[in-house]
Amino acid sequence: MKILAIGAHPDDIEAGCSGTLAKYAQNGHDIYLLVMTEGHMGGEGAIRKKEQTKSAKILKPRELIWGAYKDTLLSPHMNQMVHDIEAVLKKIAPDFIFVHHEDDTHQDHQALAKATISATRYVRNVLFYEGPTTQNFSPTIYVDIKETLDKK
After folding, report:
1. Are the C-beta atoms of residues 143 and 23 closer than 8 Å to each other?
2. What DSSP state is assigned to residue 31?
3. DSSP-derived pairing of the beta strands 30-37 and 2-7
4. pLDDT over 90 (residue 12)
5. Measured between alpha carbons, how far is 110 from 131 in angstroms, rounded to an integer?
6. 3-state SS string over 79-131?
7. Domains in the chain, start-ordered, CATH in brackets?
8. Is the pTM of the predicted complex or chain greater than 0.85?
9. How far apart are CA 138 and CA 143, in angstroms?
10. Is residue 142 within 8 Å of 108, Cβ to Cβ?
C-alpha cells in the first residue's frame, strides 16, 4: 500500500500523523512525504529543511518531496497547489492520503487542506490529521501507535 502524507511546513506531518505513518512503514507499506514550504517563518528555512530531512530518516519514506512555496503564502497560490498535488498523485498513485484538517487556525494549513480536497476529488481515502492549531476535530478513525510512539 502507498501512503502519502502532506504537510504545509517541516514538522507538521510529524506532529500530526508520524506515529501512524511509522506503524504503516513498520508493516511494509510505502510512505511518501510532501512538504509544501521550508517553514522559514517558524525559524530559519534552511535549518528547518535540514531538520525535516533528518526526521524523515526515522520514517524512511520512499521519497520526501518539497513544494516550492513560501511560508504563510499558500492561500494566494491555491490553483497552482491543486495542480502540483495532482502531479504528485499521478506520480505516486497513493492508496491513502493524510493531510491537515481544514478547520485550523493557521492559514497555510487551511489552504493546503482545501487544495488537497480539490486535488483528491477522485481519491477515496483522504484522512485528516490533527495538529496543535487544529480546531473542532472529531476523529472517526483511531490507530493504536503505542508500538511506534517513540518514533513520533
Report:
1. yes
2. E
3. parallel
4. yes
5. 12
6. HHHHHHHHHHHHHHCCCEEEEECCCECCHHHHHHHHHHHHHCCCCCCEEEECC
7. 2-147 (3.40.50.10320)
8. yes
9. 14
10. no
